[in-house]
Write a structure and sequence with these properties.
The protein folds into four domains: about 280 residues, FAD/NAD(P)-binding domain (3-Layer(bba) Sandwich), CATH 3.50.50; about 140 residues, Elongation Factor Tu (Ef-tu), domain 3; about 70 residues, no CATH class; about 55 residues, DNA polymerase, domain 1, CATH 1.10.150.570. Helices cover about 35% and strands about 20% of the residues. The strands form four sheets. Strands 1, 2, 6, 7, 8, 9 and 20 form a seven-stranded mixed β-sheet that branches. A six-stranded antiparallel β-sheet has the order 14-15-16-17-13-18, with no helix packed on it. Strands 11-10-19-12 form a four-stranded antiparallel β-sheet. A hairpin with a 4-residue loop joins β8 and β9. α1 runs parallel beside α10 and α7 runs antiparallel to α9. The chain starts with a strand and ends with a helix. The structure holds flavin-adenine dinucleotide. The site of flavin-adenine dinucleotide has 37 residues, from α1, β2, β12 and α10.
Length: about 600
Amino acid sequence: MEKKYDVIIVGAGHAGCEAALACARTGLKTLVITMDVDSIARMPCNPAIGGIAKGQIVREIDALGGEMAWNTDHCGLQFKMLNSSRGPAVWSPRAQCDKQLYSIMMAKTLENTGNLDILQSEAASIIVKNAKACGVKVLTGEIIESRAVIITAGTFLNGTIHSGKASFGGGRFNEKEAAHLSKSLTGDCGLTLSRFKTTTPPRVNGNSIDYSKMTEQPGDEKPRPFSHFTEVSKWRQNLKQISCWMTYTNPETHKMAAENLDLSSVNINGGNSKSPRYCPSIEEKIQRYPEKIRHQIFAEPEGYNTNEVYLNGLYTGLPFDLQEKMVNSVSGLENAKIIRYAYAIEYDYANPLQVKNSLETKTVENLFLGGQINGTTGYEEAAAQGFIAGVNAGLKLFGKSPLILGRNESYIGILIDDITAKGADEPYRMFTSRAEYRLSIRNDNADLRLMDIGRSIGLISDAMYKKFELYKKTLLDIYDGNTDNIAYDEELAPWSLEKAEEEVNIHKKYEGYIEIQRKTVSKMKKNEDRKIPDNFDYDSLESLSAESKERLNKVRPQTLGQASRISSIKPSDIAILTIHLEKQRKQKKDEKQIC
Ligand SMILES: Cc1cc2nc3c(=O)[nH]c(=O)nc-3n(C[C@H](O)[C@H](O)[C@H](O)COP(=O)(O)OP(=O)(O)OC[C@H]3O[C@@H](n4cnc5c(N)ncnc54)[C@H](O)[C@@H]3O)c2cc1C
């Protein structure tokens, strides 16, 4: 067994896989430690990738050189562009996936990547020397040294599963919880951990569903792949799409939930550990929207080789017998047989105010956190952070500045800026409404926004970049009407003329608005990017209120832009900080001149 690595990643979920691949592909000797190699990149909830705003994130990870989009294209069983009746700014790709295939394919990719080792074991503690992470001790006592450590432990830290009134330890159903690492994160690393929870709905046998009572939801007639590197025409030829189906809850379903609220695990701990507001259980829905007589349920296939069907929308914490009755009260599910029952899970997370916008912890150098551990929810949010944590661990070891994406250039930038400036008091998920510049940061132009960055960090190959340059030239040719010598599809692949023409049309539609946005961004950029020194003394600024000082001391923002987005920080506080930073800058300049 090797005992020395550049980077160790704890966890092989969606964050861990992206982190590991980003490190190994840039030449770093990388180790992924995971409790179970058979569950690499497992989707414990909905086997779907993308969706509103999340689809944009997946396209961005891809343009930067990550894996999620490519993996999805090769095990997706239904592709849909959500919001397609609205403007392209909010079009959001989504794919229903074959759950097992997704996991197997990602595991194979890890296995086949050079510089990357995989170890099935439980990380018990992080070795910290002089406030620097330098390795991991596994449960069996071995110490593995490294120059950086990335923790992507998902829902496993002190995980507790709740099903009705029953509770037991677990990282996911039938998987062991990580019972030791939290102690090291608090003790050795000085982090504070809190609790969140999340629920998952039951899965039923598709053979027991009466689809004639449901509405069919087919995939798109002209599906689009997620990855910029997937050749559309070949891919479409090989794709066999499977339909999803829609039905509704009814007053009987709601009555059953209402009468048994006290039996539901949704209210565990008196509701103290918060769950994702946007994936409410039926118990929460009927309390939040008592006027609604029905809620949508989507019956979604879980794979090509299984009849298991996921009941999206029927999240619940009720005991097994009541789950059964509730499922059978729904039209089309009268005789449905549950294969896996719904459950809730509670777990430790670290409020992301404790990480910098590079995702390195503020307490321990070279220790990075990515994914659900930072208080987010969702595979895509996790993958994005894992990718950035991996890239930034690598850049740090190469002695380079971290990759910090702007809010004006990516959803990933918004996600990390939001969580590091505001923290996460409830599980954070991405929405298009969080993006100030959503006309510019669309799913269709992720390559134009980010592929140069992917290239600069060494994750986009020369051959692919050459194709990308030809694509960019083709866009200009189409835009200018120079179509005589335009490239043809074979030369452009994996890009295509169809894609180029669509891109130019979308650009023309928005270019006036985008120009206005560009001017706003460049006006704001000076202040937005102005750095606040790590040791800045907020307490010395008498004009700041005690509350603002406390908040700024807690978050320790790295730029004025970040400071301005901290909740309870007022424009007047920013004005005070700006004046003070300007004073400091002038003072330093004067000192230099005297020297
Ligand atoms: C029951 C349930 C319901 C969910 N519901 C939703 C939902 O409604 N909506 C939604 O968006 N998301 C939901 N999710 C969340 C979604 O699964 C996560 O957001 C996503 O998987 C997080 O990815 P991750 O990589 O951060 O962690 P995970 O995918 O959880 O992966 C964690 C990895 O770390 C490993 N690990 C942990 N600790 C150790 C250790 N000490 N040593 C070695 N390996 C370790 C595990 O083996 C695993 O490989 C749900 C998850 C669960 C379990």
